[in-house]
Design goal:
Immunoglobulin-like, about 40% helix, about 230 residues, three-stranded antiparallel beta sheet, alpha+beta
Amino acid sequence: MGLFRRNGPVVFERHAYGGRRSRSVPPWLLWLLAGIAAGAGGLFYVQEEYLPPRLTPAESQQLQARVGELEAERQRLRAALARATAEAQSAQTGSERLTVELADARQSIERLRADLALFDEVLPPDPRGGAVAVRAAKFTNQDGRLAYHVLLTRERKGGKPFAGTMELVVAGERGGRNETIDLGPVEVSLAGYQHVRGALPLPAGFAARQVTVRVLDRTGGTLQGMRVINAR
């Protein structure tokens, strides 16, 4: 009966080995939290004192725009480099082609020199044997003009090229009478040889029959070579 009494106080007995256990924070957790706080503080200090300031959104957009411009400039320079490289390769190809053409031209010149040497050997010599030889000549009556082609040669023993004049004294016929006319002087200059070509006017009705070629060191000067050639 005493166990079920309602009006009496309810008494709880303490546990035999003490009251509620108190809970304490582990030391390693305190050290961890302190380290995190110190690291965050240090990072903030370094960022504020030594690192560049953080960009605002507007500055970030400007930076991105600048990066785009630099990329476009890089692409342009790359394209320019490609064009310059192609042009350099083309120039090198052209240079190689010119080198080959130059070698061919030199070979042609050597062949021409050999041909001229042979031509000089087989061509009849000037019988007068002057300082300047009249090796060959051709004269033609052509529409009131005397067309001429004269080959002059000179001994190749160095020294300055010969410079002088060539005079053409023409004998012919006009109106049934024989006449001789002296055409104007023609300037000549040769180191070894020279082909002298041209045409000079003849008097009206005059037909050339024979031409005397005279080579002088200057107009009215010393005779250097002479030869008489028939005209056609």
